[in-house]
Amino acid sequence: MDGADAFTDRLNPQMCVVTAAAEGRRAGCLVGFFSQCSIRPVRFMVWLSTANHTYEVARAADFLAVHLLDREQHDLAELFGGECGARTDKFARARWRSGPGGTAVLEDAAAWFVGTVGRRVEDGDHVGFVLEPVEWGGRTEGHLLRLREALDIAPGHPVD
């Protein structure tokens, strides 16, 4: 694994919070694996850990919301990355509104979109969700929170 570590240790992707709502439940988590995956039509892929409570809710969701955070929003990243949604109502401690499909849109996010789930790709310990955006919002300025600024957040979900 030395080669893999040498490669991945150099990465510093933007972090995002993904929220889902289905079957009367809401969930959200901090995610580092996401990217635009198509230009026409615009599509994104987000990968959720199968160990994460949000994954359980997202499996039944038709829409997911993806939120970018500014560096100054470390507390919001810590809430969604360091707390387990099975034990904590994260949304009681964050400003949010209902978006398409009932998905929770975080009102303080630097930028966000809600997308329909086009398909799911299972691979390894994460499942990829292909999203086609249907609604956008947010600001265009500010420095986005990146992985290196979030390394101090201990995952809130159980780790095997």
Automatic annotation (TrEMBL):
Superkingdom of the organism of origin: Bacteria
Signal peptide stretch: none
Keyword annotations: Oxidoreductase
Domain Flavin reductase like residues, every copy: 15-146
Keyword Ribosomal protein: no
Protein name per the record: Flavin reductase family protein
Species whose genome carries this gene: Streptomyces gilvifuscus
